[in-house]
Specification:
- The complex is a heterotrimer of chains A (356), B (306) and C (519).
- By secondary structure, chain B is mainly α.
- In chain B, 72% of the residues lie in helices and 0% in strands.
- In chain B, α3 packs antiparallel against α4 (88-106) and α6 packs antiparallel against α11 (236-259).
- Chain B is globular and about 60 Å long.
- Chain C folds into 3 domains: 4-245, Rossmann fold (3-Layer(aba) Sandwich); 251-343 and 430-519, Rossmann fold, CATH 3.40.50; 355-428, no CATH class.
- In chain C, a hairpin with a 2-residue loop joins β9 and β10 (225-230).
- Chain C is globular.
- In chain C, the strands form 5 sheets. In chain C, strands 13, 16, 19, 20, 21, 22 and 23 form a 7-stranded mixed β-sheet that branches. A 6-stranded mixed β-sheet of chain C has the order 6-7-8-3-9-10, with helices on both faces.
- The chains are: A mainly alpha (356), B mainly alpha (306), C alpha/beta (519).
- The B-C interface holds B 161, 164-165, 167-168, 171-172, 174-181, 288, 291-292, 295-296, 306 and C 22, 60-61, 80-82, 85, 93, 96-102, 106, 109-111, 114, 122, 277-278.
Chain lengths: 356, 306, 519
Amino acid sequence: MIRLESKGEPSRLFSYLSPVLAMVLTVGTGALLFELMGKPAGPSLYAYFIQPFTTLYGASELGVKATPLILIGLGLSVGFRANVWNIGAEGQLTLGAIAGGALALAFYEVETPLLLPAMMIAGVLGGMAWAAIPAFLRVKFNANEILVSLMLTYVALLLLSYLVHGPLRDPDGFNFPESRLFHDSATMPTLISGTRLHWGAVLAVLAAGAIWLMLSRSMLGFQLKILGDAPRAARFAGYREPKLVWFSLLLSGGLAGLAGALEVSGTVGQLIPTISPGYGFTAIIVAFLGRLHPVGVVIGGLTMALTYIGGETAQIEIGLPAAVTGLFQGVLLFYLLACDVLINYRLRFGRRLAIG
Amino acid sequence: MDALTLLLLSVMTAATPLLLAALGELITEKSGVLNLGVEGMMIVGAVCAFAVSVSTGNAAAGIAAGAVAGAAMALIFGFLTLTMLANQVATGLALTIFGIGLSALIGKGYVGIAVAPLAKLHIPLLSDIPLLGPILFGQDALVYLSLLSVLAVYWFMKRTRAGLVLRAVGDSHEAAHAIGYSVIRIRYLAVLFGGAMAGLAGAYLSLAYTPLWAENMTAGRGWIALALVVFSTWRPGRLLAGAYLFGGITILQLHAQSAGWGVPSQIMSMLPYLATILVLVIISGDRAKIRLNAPACLGKVFHPAQ
Amino acid sequence: MNDNHNDPSTPLLELRGIRKAFPGVVANDDVSLSIKHSEIHALLGENGAGKSTLVKIIYGVLRPDQGDLLWQGKPVDLAGPSAARDLGIGMVFQHFSLFEALSVAENIELALPSKGEGGFDRAELPDRISEVSAQYGLPLDPRRTVLDLSVGERQRIEIVRCLLQDPKLLIMDEPTSVLTPQEVGRLFETLRRLASEGCAILYISHKLQEIRDLCETATILRGGKVVATCDPRQQSVQSLANMMIGETPLKPERPAGRVLEKSNRLEVRGLSLPAQKAFGTALKDISFSVRGGEVLGLAGVAGNGQPELMTALIGEVLTYPEAVRIDGQPVGRLGPRRRREAGACFVPEERNGHATAPDMPLADNGLLSADRRMGLTRGGWILSRARDRFAGEVIQRFSVKASGIGAAAKSLSGGNLQKFSVGREIAQNPGVLVINQPTWGVDAGSAAAIQEAILALAAEGAAVVVISQDLDELFAIADRIAVMSEGKLSRPKPIGEVTIEEIGLLMGGIQGEKTGATV
């Protein structure tokens, strides 16, 4: 029997140590899992965690995958602090991709440097519009934003599927459910030639800085933290919850939409039925792994990006199913949540004394 | 069988997994625990039921495996939230992400295999009564189980002392602890029941509804089940009505697609999700009603030390 | 258990050398006491003296680290509350252990053994409840939901649920803090009757007069240790207080020569508000006004609309503009921040989570209500140096014991957090201060400091409203007093013109001859 004993004051040490511990445990579990599946653990772990770094392209892919994860994770972490649970970032990303992509296709023949910024703005607005629905329904009708934003994710994916099967399908594409490839003026330039790393990575770092400033220095960030920590104290102070709910959802929706627009213009280059391999969901883990702190989110984003790339490499090299990635991500979050208990409690093993 | 009978039968079939999973979650939530991992438990239940059913050739073994797998998933959730005091929302999400990954891994070798759909009862004479016969006497075992479960859950909560204790723990864990009930143990049991029911719902999907395994085959049904619990205001009778309403919407959109009304199939497929949002909005708008019926401790962490 | 252990010379319950420590604090240290059959035994001590921990040990909720419990002369090891109940120990909690969504009968059933283990049949229980409640003068309807019931009725549920188990020892934890003086009288009758029928009573309180009226023996705890055992009837209130606090209790001194201003600084006119929560209290046509330099006391039993009035005054719930005026300015439709700008500050009852954010450092908690009045922000950005300076000032001026401005609010003791919450508002030098239960659950030293700070603020010309259940406190600091009952407010009267009995009647909802609900 495990008993928990309160430490009184939360431990700073463990709030930093817990993510590291969780990652170590996840790698250990991974090794065990590989052995159980009859794959030697050493080479598998090498393929998963080390091999991606052996080439410039592999390393740059880390940035490619981390960019959307960081952007979305930043927005989510702000909302989670305020107890606003936006779980539908995948849908908001999809809407951002649709909005940005549709703009690129609408101005298919036009060559202008304004197109890219316009696509990004369209992406942000698309994501915001999608997030505005759960915001409105929560503020006005008290509807749970977890369920609403999640349901809207399914709707968004179906909408994208409809568009690439119908109105936005490439007229010369032999009926494949794909749009035309974007022109150069709708494609995000790369940072390093020979890789897919694009300017979106810079945007993600800038966004992290801005969010950090907002959370640590502004009254708005302070109000969000109070709303999450002690909602009654927020009412006592006179902070307006509806305003903060709107802000959290629009911010996270906008950033997810931006990530979507960046994906189609920087990485994919066209609209296809599946834009993201679940970035919107993985970003939830990124936010928690990063302790809901912007710097942590950047680190968490890079870590989770590694699980995607490692998953792909492992799939090719040793024939592991792609699903292992999701499995690892879930396990990592489990360990993290379990290790977090050490921030506030001491573990005691043995029989419980008082009745439980 | 005439068209109406077929339609009603298909509505029941579509409603059954929702009903099973939502009933389990209802009990879990009544004990004060919010498990958002229904989708994850359901899909692991689906793949385990399918795998065991294929390898043993025994549907009953498959169903049992589904329930056990769902309960095992719930055990992870219970350990993290009840023993390790983790945040229930975050843990539920992790359970879903994990479950989808795990199910894909387990199901890798089973994609594209078909099994015989779960056997329907056939009682001579009774099952042959027009319209009512097949509906009342010609379903598979899980449909009856789901309906019996509604009655059992109602009876349990209203009439038994254990049900009273469950409601008490969900209403105030401090008070329950103070008069000597083991809050954690009761919540573990409720969480495990919720997991087993979600596993059964998954088993129904992969063995009866569409007797095959495909990745992500639950397609959000776990989340819809969660919404149904809110819609029911935690009452089994209303849950039954809600599940059948959703079964109806699902079948309606399928029929509309095949009838070719000119509406793209993707748009029709959005219907159940949009209906879920609509239902949530209608029910949640009445804040007083939600507050009156929702278990007061829902989602709150309980640490019994002091 | 009616066996030969009922020898009256053996104590019913004896504690020997009980010790219980929590991280950072020893709650009970070498505590010994013994309770005789049919005795009404007081356990007396200040907040934080270790009374609650000790009764939890007796009721099996906690286990002692050291020491023995003897029941009728035999050592016992209580594995849990049900073991205590099996022995014949019943307990009425201070914060009731009731289930609000369940009915009276269901609440009682939960605390009884099930039918197979000697409990009652579900179907018979309502009749048994009515029987016992009639027998002891504790009227209760078994079918009603607890949510609908008043605090006094809720206490009756707890008592009836103990009585149904024929207890030999009944523990009452601060039972009168929620009752009117008249209800207290009736409760004492019930308790005396129980004692005369052979049930011992362990009565926990810090109210000295009550203990002198009711109890035969008193065990006095201070700092977790037994400091005295005596017959309270032979003691004066003063001598009991000396034993409990260890020094003469501090009485706030009213600054002499206070001048009341002519104009009303706070004016409430015809404030009505429907109940905000299911079964909350609706406010009905509340009117009062407070002049500069004056302290108005609002008495009343808990659950008669005090928190509702507080939220309406803070501005957490909005009414119509003229319902509340601050220095003449109608603010009824303005939120808390605008009301603070208009000159009012507030201290709500719950310091943990309402007045402060428990996990946040004191520096941030200072910012919570003082950002605008003290100029701690500019253009939406936090001025961190000003923020830290303000929190530091509050800590210093009001002698808040904390590790510094970085200490989380929840790490402070109740008294120190209350001093911080009150100090934060007084330091803003408001023209109007509204404060709910200023010294609830606070040690005597802090309580006196808080009361003095309130009086000093009034002396500087502020209008102060003090909402309190503690009549002694109101008589000590208020100039005028009014009573809240079922959402209505009686006409305020100068403190010299009313007696405690009169106020008690008003608290019970009985309106005096001239006391209309409104002025």
